[in-house]
């Protein structure tokens, strides 16, 4: 009896050990899901897709559930309501939320793009372009209050053009229909994102003659942000996420446009590979992709200057109030 008791005990102990080891092994291999809401699907966000496709997030133990929310307001609603853990959207949205008196402010913790991503496209080919040539023209702009429009107006004013008096400025067309409106004959000039600008140029529908990103300088155009409560409760996750992003930023900085385009192709199945490569090359050459996740004070102040010039800045916010660079600085060392 005692012999069988000992055998039974030994088997039970072995079984318990096996179960324990299996559980530990399973726990080790299990990835933590992080829900990310991106404001739109864009080649402009290349390092994010690289971080997913190259396995940099998985190396950090993270499983990214990426959702495209199509619009800054929808993206912030998703974040604030708990539908997303992290949002990729323009930094200006965190200022708008703060101005409404949120009890749980949205904190910018990692920068993805550091310039505007739009281009000035003309209907006719222009030799020796000068911004003065825009005066008196019909200009298809972007949505009022959004970063593209604010940067557009900022650049125009820098070149001595009053967008509301020197131009026939059209702003009442939905973002999704701006390109179609221009293609159908509306406007002499249009402010377009890629890859539409390059596609239009390839098809002879327009000509890229200037870059708003080059003209406006460095600005935290698109950043990863999270609610302050999530930043504190999931600090380890935020660090892993930022470290994976930094790996991708370095990879993009060191790789050729062709190599990057190949990685991006699954995310842009309706865009020809040569167009993807052209767009990546254009963004790389003008320094649009941030090479590290740190959103510095100068960029933050430039953002607010642009918003203020457009009459859209609710109040001036100190860099340290809505920006946390501690994690980005740590992983970038």
Automatic annotation (TrEMBL):
Taxonomic superkingdom: Bacteria
Record carries keyword Cell inner membrane: no
GO cellular component annotations of the record: periplasmic space
Ranges for domain SsuA/THI5-like: 46-252
Signal peptide: 1-25
UniProt cross-references to PROSITE patterns, sorted A to Z: PROKAR_LIPOPROTEIN
Localization, UniProt: Periplasm
Organism listed in the record: Rossellomorea aquimaris
UniProt-recorded name of the protein: SsuA/THI5-like domain-containing protein
Pfam families for this protein: NMT1
UniProt record similarity statement: Belongs to the bacterial solute-binding protein SsuA/TauA family.
Stored SUPFAM superfamilies: Periplasmic binding protein-like II (SSF53850)
Keyword Signal: yes
Family annotation (Gene3D superfamilies): Periplasmic binding protein-like II
């Amino acid at each position: 009896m005692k012999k069988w008791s000992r055998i039974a005990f030994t088997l039970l102990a072995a079984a318990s050990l096996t179960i324990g080891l299996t559980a530990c092994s399973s726990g080790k291999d299990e990835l933590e899901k992080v829900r990310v809401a991106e404001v739109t699907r864009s080649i402009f966000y290349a390092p994010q897709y690289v971080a997913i496709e190259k396995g940099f997030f998985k190396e950090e133990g993270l499983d990214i559930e990426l959702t495209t929310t199509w619009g800054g307001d929808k993206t912030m609603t998703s974040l604030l309501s708990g539908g997303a853990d992290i949002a990729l959207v323009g930094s200006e949205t965190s200022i708008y939320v703060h101005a409404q008196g949120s009890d749980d402010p949205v904190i910018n913790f990692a920068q993805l793009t550091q310039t505007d991503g739009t281009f000035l496209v003309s209907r006719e080919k222009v030799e020796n372009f000068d911004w003065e040539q825009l005066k008196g023209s019909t200009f298809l702009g972007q949505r009022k209050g959004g970063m593209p429009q604010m940067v557009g107006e900022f650049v125009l004013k820098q070149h001595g053009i009053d967008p509301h008096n020197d131009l026939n400025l059209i702003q009442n067309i939905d973002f999704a229909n701006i390109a179609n409106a221009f293609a159908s004959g509306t406007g002499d000039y249009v402010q377009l994102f890629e890859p539409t600008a390059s596609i239009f140029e390839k098809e002879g529908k327009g000509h890229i003659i200037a870059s708003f990103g080059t003209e406006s300088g460095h600005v935290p155009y698109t950043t990863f942000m999270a609610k302050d409560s999530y930043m504190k409760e999931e600090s380890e996750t935020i660090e892993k996420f930022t470290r994976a992003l930094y790996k991708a930023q370095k990879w993009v900085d060191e790789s050729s446009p062709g190599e990057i385009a190949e990685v991006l192709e699954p995310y842009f199945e309706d865009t020809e590979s040569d167009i993807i490569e052209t767009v990546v090359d254009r963004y790389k050459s003008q320094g649009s992709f941030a090479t590290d996740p740190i959103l510095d004070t100068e960029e933050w102040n430039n953002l607010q200057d642009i918003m203020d010039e457009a009459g859209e800045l609710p109040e001036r916010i100190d860099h340290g109030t809505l920006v946390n660079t501690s994690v980005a600085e740590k992983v970038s060392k």
